[in-house]
Amino acid sequence: MKSEFIMQPPHPETEWSACTGYSESAVLIERILDVSLKDTSICTGPDHMYYLTGTTDGSNLQVWTSADLKAWTGPATVWSLEQEGTWQKDSEGSSGICAPEIHYVKGTFWITYGLNQGGTGLLRCSSASVMGPYQDMGKMTADGQDASLFEDEDGAVYWVYSNGKIARMNEDITGLEETPRMVEVEPWKVAGREDHPSYIRNLQIGTYGAFLYKRDGYYYMFCADALERMGSDAVDTFVAVSQSIYGPYSRRYLALPHGGQISLFTGLDNQLYASFTGCGSYSPVEHYPSVVPMSFAGPRFIRPSEELVLEKGAVGSLKPVADFLIRDPHISTGPDGMYYLTGTTDKPHRNFWDRNNQLHLWSSNDLKEWNHVAKVWDLSENGTWENNIYENPCLWAPEMIYLYGTFWITYSLKGGGTGLIKSVSGHAEGPYIDMGRMTNTDIDSSLFQDDDGQVYFVWQDGKIARMKKDMTGFAEDPRKLLCSGGHRVGYEGAFIVKYKGKYILGAAEWNGDKRVDGTYDLMYAVAEDLYGPYTPRRLAVPHGGHGTMFIDHDGRLMSTFFGNDRTAPFRTRVGIVLLGAEEDGEGLCIEPSCE
């Protein structure tokens, strides 16, 4: 297992650095309680029982009890704002309790909480039972809504809340001994990557729900933050790590997708768990409490168990259709009725970024079982102009199409430049001849043939040019297709497919952070005419990135998939997503289908 995840973040495609590990036997996460809650908190008591609380009606603090995290009894009201509240009812604004957390510290139960109008408070249990009664310890802070307790190994207790604020408490835990301070994280220092907080010069872990955990001498500060991965309403859980409780803390990273505000606790089986309420429409347990086992995939690198699927929908549960490594997969059909698959391979050096100069081809008659056809091109053996530009050229993102009685394959080079090869036998396996260089810069080239037989070269972020009849170059000056409002559809991997009489322009884009914790999604726009105007861009396939759409033998719209971000269902394997395409108020709506 790699150990440099914190200090030297890898490319997000790598499985060992993933937030969601892939398992063939993984199952969809389920709610543990059929009650709509927010801010779920769980702790273990000295009686070998689990205790759960969370935001309910704002007027009462309620607790549920379980012996196994599955069957829960309750709720029992342990404290009432109306009957027992004091200072809380004197605050200005709408009074109400939110974000309670339950803790067992120094031989008794404590409940931290916030008020809807702002401010945090603390209750101390006056008996050995979690049911109370509870003594009101008063207001702890005038700001914040989501407080937590943390007891360090030396017995010191800390008040942790909001976006990572922390203050040591006095010895009898009746108040704060110092002014709260906010911990800061290190910014990303890797070229081409943008982490949202550091990009806007706000070096925070998240925006709310701070929770502190310690393991092997390291402090883990968790916070919730709305990242807009997949362009969605997800609220994720981030973490940063430090050897000092006050920091400095490491760069932050996404620890639990859709987790929002969480608490961590050790189960009776010595397994570390996170309790949370599903946040966002992609969460299978949205608005409901759940529990996920957490694991350490490397030093200071925490993530959910790979045995649970944390994202609902056809993509969240997607499985690879083949076990070989590939990026940028492309599927097309031949005159023989076969499907042909190609893409960026790691051959010959088992590396996608270093001298991977071979072009391989696979075939299938059912999109399920794939057989290797041949290595159809090798820059070290067949390359011409490519080897005059780069000392060790890498071949990226090939795409195949059947035109004019034979097969053609476009490809691009690491560093820029695109080319085209042609099968001289009329067969997919070749042999192929070099048709030369198509563009001097840019990557990710594709070919599209319209109904009138005209062929177009499409590349990078929506650039397009009609090809000459002999396919030796462009018959017109290139232009760029833009969505309404002047926006590009994506930044790379552009392609066009025609479906239901409409032109679909697709491309890959990073949503949320760029090559950090964001998602590499497949976006699209639609037009009645090839050159537009195109509709506003929309999301077609979450995590789909540089996939490409194709039409199967039954006339269904499909998309390839390979996974290229930390929360994809898998990485660098080929998947196939069935798409639905129906008209709605904004035009043709394309989205994954669960058929």
UniProtKB/TrEMBL annotation:
It comes from the Bacteria. Keywords: Glycosidase, Hydrolase. The keyword Hydrolase applies. The keyword Hydrolase applies. InterPro entries: Glyco_hydro_43 (IPR006710), Glyco_hydro_beta-prop_sf (IPR023296), Glycosyl_Hydrlase_43 (IPR051795). It holds the Pfam family Glyco_hydro_43. Belongs to the glycosyl hydrolase 43 family. This is Family 43 glycosylhydrolase. It comes from Paenibacillus alginolyticus.
